[in-house]
Amino acid sequence: MFSEADHTAMQRALALAERGMYITTPNPRVGCVLIRDGKVIGEGFTQPAGQDHAEIQAMKNAKARGFDVAGATAYVTLEPCSHVGRTPPCADALVRAGIARVVAAMEDPNPSVSGRGLQRLRDAGIDVRCGLLEREARELNIGFVSRMTRGQPWVRMKVAASLDGGTALHDGTSQWITGPAARDDGHLWRARACAILTGIGTVRDDDPQLTVRAVDTPRQPQRVVVDSRLELPLDARVLAPDSGEFARPVLIFCAVDDPERRAQLEARNAQVFCLPDARGKVDLAAMVAELGQRGINELHVEAGFKLNGSLIRAGCVDELLVYLAPKLLGDARGMFNLPPLARLADAPAYQWHDVRTIGDDVRLIARKATPIAGKALA
Ligand SMILES: NC(=O)c1ccc[n+]([C@@H]2O[C@H](COP(=O)([O-])OP(=O)(O)OC[C@H]3O[C@@H](n4cnc5c(N)ncnc54)[C@H](OP(=O)(O)O)[C@@H]3O)[C@@H](O)[C@H]2O)c1
User: Fold this and answer.
1) Is 95 in the pocket of ligand 1 (CB under 6 A)?
2) CA–CA separation, 47 vs 54, rounded Å?
3) Is the pTM of this model over 0.90?
4) What's the CA-to-centroid distance between 373 and ligand 1, angstroms?
5) What is residue 243's predicted lDDT score, i.e. its pLDDT?
């Protein structure tokens, strides 16, 4: 159904989509290549929300290069949109421009598109194919797919540990267990996330900034702190405004409201949500759903073993991103505070997704079995 030339063009469209990795959120990362008579005449990728989608960028690019796009094939990594959001529908723009054929990697999981964009193109007489390199396209937008289909972000939990699973000494010291290459790699994952989450214990011990530093990005992820009793120090570094172009308040999730403390924090670049569960802790599943409501596609967790354990117990974690250093910490804090099991069969199970060395450390990615990433996922 798809030729070698189709594959080459879609691979190029995926590479273009990746160039939007840090900027398109909450929109998906999308790339588009226009080909006519075997020649690339236009290329584009989705810009920050409210600006051009990939198809429009590619058509503008073709025009700037002096090409007429009528009769061309458009390769897009996501079904062209059919609804009026912050920008007009791309499907209509492709029809108006006289595009002859559209090859899409995947249907748009957004319920307000979901096949309607492709149908609109078909209704206009365009030859439409879908499903080329779908797995790669889904991976690129795993958070967007998650939010559109489950109403919640894709939750990725990063842990840096010793070979025997230690993440911090008992006095809280944890800097640094892994090497510089692993830490830089960690910043790439931070950069692609819409939000970074930590717990009050980590703020107390490390006073982290929770910003992206090793990656050139115009956008800093939103910062989120789980802090049951609003104990966050007012001079915590996480409260300092970030340098990103799209700066937003730090979100603090608590379980016990304190109007005076809330006012102090909200006067310092924070927004407080009180979401208690029956035990008087933060209802973590409700928090994750709230973040989905707020347009968070990928949530990156960098917390200590207590909050890590709570998030796993609440069933909130989709992916574990674990860096292992070839050293032993002995009796130290572990990765996840989880209760003892009565039966091995009750162990939370994951599947290996990727294993590789990064500098002197090993990086492991394990995922919960989930339909989000599509059945083709290993
Ligand atoms: N190596 C790494 O990858 C890594 C990454 C981050 C941090 N760390 C290290 O981890 C250490 C801190 O560990 P930690 O476990 O104390 O910090 P943490 O997990 O970041 O935060 C602990 C806090 O989370 C709270 N918590 C847990 N479940 C909760 C829930 N459902 N609702 C509300 N609050 C909840 C606990 O509250 P309660 O006390 O009320 O239960 C606890 O105060 C530091 O030494 C830091 O350096 C290591």
Assistant:
1) no
2) 7
3) yes
4) 29
5) 65
